[in-house]
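anyone seen this seq b4? input:
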Amino acid sequence: MTSDDTHSRTLQLLESNSYFGMEPTQVMLLKQEKVACLDDNEARLAVDPHNKYRIQTKPHGHGDVHSLLFSSGLLNVWRAAGLRWVLFFQDTNGLLFNAIPAAIGVSATRQYHVNSLTVPRKAKEAIGGITRLTHVDGRTMVINVEYNQLDPLLRATGHPDGDVNCETGYSPYPGNINQLILELGPYIEELTKTKGGIKEFVNPKYKDASKTSFKSSTRLECMMQDYPKTLPPTARVGFTVMDAWFAYAPVKNNPEDAAKVPKGNPYHSATSGEMAVYRANSLILRKAGVQIADPVPEVFNGQEVEVWSRITWKPQWGLTFSDIKKKVGGSCSISQRSTMIIKGCNVIVEDLSLDGALVIDAAKNSEVKVGGSVQNKGWTIEKVDHNDTSVAEELRIRGFRIKRIQQLETVGLPNSS
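predicted toks r here
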């Protein structure tokens, strides 16, 4: 889903990257409309600062995705194609696809109509919590409660300490990361009744404690994760908790804001988001039996992060841990400075000792087995100043570039059969 602010650049990104391996017909952009902005507590319409004869507008919130899916007819196309599940994801969280296969398994096993992906959450952490709310008449609802509302809600309903950690060291209310899995059939049935309408709210940002004037105009908006509020009590709504290292590393802060984050707290930047991918892949291979060297600390754009071995693979190599475990054998080790890239499905890594850079490119229907000692100068990480406008923006927000000095490339050709 896009808006006027993001549509053209999103399309440009897809086209310039050949739709990242997808066919263009597989991708449909649904553009939401904007709504009028409000200037004050009296809900006076805000005027466009560049044109006093035009009303200022902003997007209506990501809750519009439900009405757009309904009005586009796309859901019925998916059902006719035999699809069963709909995944809603935030495009800033690159790790989420690690968690999706297992979460869909949970949905299928528990027969969930709605399944929210969550991570362990510290009390009062600035992330919404998944809760079960019980009405005085006995009705219940499993729903996200925003972090700034959770503590007051608990204190008002018999929990005098509010949002506190339990014996696990975490809040009893797991953190909502806004990745939803919906069963397609019941979803279509519900939208046929509601047309995808989601309850609206306003969330003005005030200049001071008097709450008499806004920092900037506000508007009515709605949230994707409020969909369960429209469901009947018979709906099966649940959640799946995943470790954060495996499933949650959003990229939403620019370098300046990320550098202000207190040490020990997540930066949620392009720098930390990329390093989180390398960490996750390294830990997955560790669990599969590979000796992965410990990371070293480095500072990029004022952010201290752990730098693990730079390991990536195409999804076709392994969607689940069991997939990967079957393709790694013997005694394998990878040094901290190493880079390993796996492209292809049938790639077996066995008795490999890597200290450098290794690129494995296996064509479709080919089989490649990699092992032995690989040592070369490898690829290095070179720091980049985010204020240096002579450098491409995607490198500046990252805080570094990769210098490819030396590597071993292994290419698997298609089988003649």
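Residues 325 and 338 are 20 Å apart (CA to CA). The mean pLDDT is 95. kinda curious what u guys think
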